[in-house]
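Before the break, one more example. Copy the sequence into your notebook; we will annotate it together after we see the structure.
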Amino acid sequence: MENLGGGLAALAFWGFIASTVVGGLWYAIREKQAQHATLQRMIESGQKIDAEVIDKIISGDGKADKDLKIAAYITMSVAPGLVLLGFVLSRVNEDIFAILSGVAGLVLFVGLGLLAASNIAERSANQNDRPPM
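Here is what the structure looks like once it is written out:
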């Protein structure tokens, strides 16, 4: 019976993660549908549509590099908090500090990966903005 609380906590955690992923996917699908509906309304109204207009509507505002950089900084700032949490909880169980330090390292590397992705997206956006020679 005492493992029931831990099991419910784990179930709640993974349920939250699953609902966040499903919510993000649902939002992305709805956003794509809205973009296609905008293009369809433009075509039906007889407006002239060239490749630049289509790219602007489909790609959105083109701030993926900034979004990735913000996500990287937020993710990397969680790592020290996990280490601090491990330090505080180590008074209850000695092994928790080592475990949460490992988790903090993983979170830090995820943040570094996001930062690298933002740099790649920024370089890609800068290359696309350059006029052809």
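The radius of gyration is 22 Å. The chain has a mean pLDDT of 84. Try to locate both features in your own notes.
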